[in-house]
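seq:
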Amino acid sequence: MVHSLLPTTRTPPKIRTPPKIPSSAAVRNVAMEKIRRKKLNDRFYALRSVVPNITKMDKASIIKDAIVCIQELQEEEKRLLAEVHDMEMETELKDTGFPKKRRTLPCFALRSHSIEITELRVHEAGGRTIGLSITCVKKRDAMRKLFELFERLDLKITTASFISFSGSLVLTLFIEEDDITNAKTIQERIEKAIAG
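struct:
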């Protein structure tokens, strides 16, 4: 048996300090973090349940698969919109013998930005109510500018809804008129306000 010639060194014993009592703020922060993580995990589970093709169960894969699914849905939306447009054109050709011409109204400027209206349809909805549908190119502040236009025209809007798709914004309004006006008069007023 060979003894070591080197002196043995001992590590000094560690002095145990009593554990620190966490402050109430630290306890609250830990509790809030646990709640945040739980909500985040719950939302990942919800996302995983609606995405049809999940490849792996980790969070990064779930997000990647969700992105792929959204991109596929966007492509399908474009395809369906093109199909609907083609069907509308075919129907118009059958009914009138020539395709419906969409006219583009001149752009108008409000506060250094312009709005391009691609379609304006006005129809009588019954009684004193007039329906109005405006399709325009989706740009910054488009909704605000359209409503500024309606304010200038002093139109009494009873219902408004909008849809945004493929770079376009479709605004549908119902207007109530006090005096007897028809849809053509309203359309002329709107076109005049847009042009001038």
